[in-house]
# Entry
Amino acid sequence: MPAPRSTQAADTDESIREREIGIEQAHLDQVYARLNEKLAEAEFLLDEASQKWQAGTPGAYAERDAQVSAAGRHLIRLTNEYEDFLFGRIDLQAPDAPEEDGIPSQTPLDPDDPTIAETLYIGRLGVLDAEYGPLVIDWRAPAAAPFYRATPVQPGRVLRRRVIRSRRRRVLGVEDDLLRPDLEPTLDGEPVAVVGDGALMATLGRARSHTMRDIVSSIQHEQDVVIRAQAAGATLVTGGPGTGKTAVALHRAAYLLYHDRRKYAGGILVVSPTPLLVSYTEGVLPSLGEEGQVAIRAIGNLVEGVEAERYDSPEVVRIKGSARMVALLRRAARAALDRRDTPTELRVSAMGEVLTLDQHALRELRRTALNGTTPLNLLKPRARRLLLDALWSRLLRGRPAPVDRYEREELQRQRESFDEYLSDDDRFLSFLDAWWPLLTPRQVLGTLRDPRRLSRQARGALSGQEVRLLADSWQHLGPRGEGALSAHDAALLDELQTLLGEPPRARSREVDPAELLTGLDEVTTYGDRIRRDQEAREAARRERSDYAHVIVDEAQDLTPMQWRMVGRRARNATWTIVGDPAQSSWIDPAEAAAAMDETLGGKPRRRFTLTTNYRNPAEIAEVAARVLAQAAPGTEAPKAVRATGVVPRFTAVAAEERMGAAARAEVERLLAEVDGTVGIVVPMDRRDEAARWIAGLGDRAVALGSLEAKGLEYDATVVADPSGIAGESEAGLRVLYVALTRATQRLTVLSGPLDLPDSAGVPALLQ
Ligand SMILES: Nc1ncnc2c1ncn2[C@@H]1O[C@H](COP(=O)(O)OP(=O)(O)OP(=O)(O)O)[C@@H](O)[C@H]1O
# Structure
């Protein structure tokens, strides 16, 4: 909160501002001079390393590559960070104790001393001057914490906090908060200057684009506590819309990497609900100097090779998401071994005899093989062994048992050559492949298109109506499961993958060392080197299935099946889980909460709540709260941090056919009123229609289905057909709450006759 301003007798506000900007400019110039030296150093290292190719030994190549890669990364970081590099300053009282383990004391020697004894600058990365003194402190370092944590109630040593706004190399402005105005702090014997109206409000008022910005210069106290919380077990964060959960989660990823890079080298996975939210948030981590170690994935794209392209109806989601699917899939996987062309008899000749296993015998063998929980594809060797045993018993049938050691040894030798002979026998081998086929998850899913088959696997788990809905949702799939899938299908595929196991892979080709050398020779330009480095990291990330830390955004929407899927990637991970039950579009939040609980197992949990809404002005938050009261009675809405004086507009059309024209007119009006983006949110089945309504209005305007709006925000939003959104499913009111909380400046609610608007155009749901 902005503190009262101290006055400076002789100077005008403007000249004080200019002078203070000049002071910060001088510091920034110093920082850039140092950064330039560092850049030159990184470039030199790159050059030097790339010239080492002549050294010729494998060791020299390895060393050269390591240097190229390290210097390249350093260079990327430096050039990335060149924008808006330095953003904060704190002026501190003298500490009561010296630093311990590099962490300065946060308590003052004398709380009533107005003298500023130390000044620290905070930026995106730490920069030391040539004498190793700190020119800029990394925002994640312990010494930077007071920049975020100090409040007038608990100022610690901070007398003045300054946010510095810069573009490229120019300081544009400063915004100060005086934490102890009662003391009238002094700097070098002069009263300290205080400029501006508070940095937070200036930030919140800025126009939004289609990508999220980092909040590194204005993280608030309660958010900072979460970002820096120790990552043991699971960190659970709840908070209403706009409280910064997504922003905090991403900054926490950057913080954890800074804090313990080695520990998190195993990678951090951020699970997001939609691809739209992934692309919206993707730029935040690079802006914080972190990207390589963090994978941000939509929940539907977590399974390698699967891109969720379809949406399921809420009724189908309810079935596919439920833990009841586990038993069904287990049965389906086993049943998939039996296909129309599965052989019903095995007939081979060995040792001069024809040996046969009939359908009954084969069925018994399969039952024995399936006993236990080993993944099916890994059971093929066991199936082979059981077949050989059974054939051997057939061969021995009627023969006398061996009587002495010599006969027993002879029999053993015969058995070995019997096994050897059949293991090479084409007939036996093609029988084995047909009788115990290696299955893919898609193949098993494909078998469930058949309602009769599905109904057999679903006995006791699903009702007849549920079986029909499920089978219908897969009718478009081909016989081997080929075709577009939904995010919920992806979780089923993942479950199947576990049930089936990875079929043994073809061995990778031996690499000719000469080929490697040619590859190195080709790496000539800086761009090549960086690209190769990035490709290698990308490949490593793709292969990764066990992360060191997993962050789940919009966790309230994960179904039990999705929790199982994410859990498989986090067996040894610590967690950060952020969400808001009042925004859940999953029909049974209690079942999902239980699934989360099971996934986390015995891991210790720490809970945090975020309470301030930084997105919606109070006027919009008030309208949303009316739906919250119905959607999640008893839930407290977060407190909006600002008001704009602009109340939401309610517009109603008398006939449904007029909805399109009215929506277009409203979007046009809002485009003229705000500088940034305008989103129109409609029920899921109207999103194509809505896209036509706003066709040609430019890329500042976007049409979204209700579920696609999750986590996103726009300068202005039109929520059309609110009762349509609320009626989409049993979770519809919560989805409407999400839709109503997307705007940073303006909101229009557009109703049709079915919304039963009153004379002021306010739909029944919001009256
Ligand atoms: N400390 C802050 N300083 C500046 N902006 C902030 C701060 N905290 C949050 N914001 C802004 O508020 C908006 C909402 O943040 P975010 O999307 O992280 O909230 P959320 O809790 O995830 O919301 P939802 O639950 O609706 O998805 C974003 O524009 C974010 O940049």
